[in-house]
């Protein structure tokens, strides 16, 4: 079996069914690993081949993303060993070649003011994308969760958004209380899109969700419109919401439940099924009031 054939087996029989990132895995394996070892027998791919590839990537200036290349091929080979396709992995004892740089960027409140002013002045982006961006700021949710959100998951009377486990990174559903200010915005947004199943409908198909690139393009325009701000990307909205929720005295466990992070692995958690609804509501309303003070026209 060649490396290419193993990749097909791995993607079709495992990754598609078990990994939300299977498309990215396929892209990495195809783009980065096929040119050097794609036609080789999987049994003949050696540790030296892996190291040579990683060194070449670093030599051409690839940063920490080279670690993703290693992690992807390591995951596939570990699966192949379990399936009996090969007896050992060539990735054994291969360390990540690049240092991971932890992003500590978050928005200070006046930066929100500048960004949202620029967004209001932007005449290219449609209101659909702008509303999705605003929802990211208020909720601290992941971009993928927001673009896939359906009206059936949102209760505008109770002010809640139930994210299903299928759309959550950790595979666990959660409920996020919506700030009253965001509820008002979403009610107005729904009146403009009464027939779509999705909060943020796409444009290419009859009823599909918006593509994440819509938000990415808005971010690029906002960065150009606010050149004095330190570099940032879409995920900084999530980091900023988490940071300011802590500043507003949100406890760690409540913050984890809001952001959808795995709770502490303690035996007590097996006996605790409380979803922190009241604490989450209090925290999100405080954050909603704080954010509105800075982004309101």
Question: Would you mind describing this structure in some detail?
Answer:
The radius of gyration is 22 Å and the shape is globular. With about 300 residues, the protein is mostly helical. The chain has twelve helices and three strands. A three-stranded antiparallel β-sheet has the order 1-2-3. Helix 1 packs antiparallel against helix 2, helix 2 crosses helix 4 and helix 6 runs parallel beside helix 10. The protein has two domains: about 80 residues, DNA polymerase, domain 1; about 190 residues, Orthogonal Bundle (hpI Integrase, Chain A), CATH 1.10.443.10. It starts with a helix and ends with a helix. A hairpin with a 4-residue loop joins strand 1 and strand 2.
Which key terms come to mind for this protein?
2 domains, three-stranded antiparallel beta sheet, 297 residues, DNA polymerase, domain 1
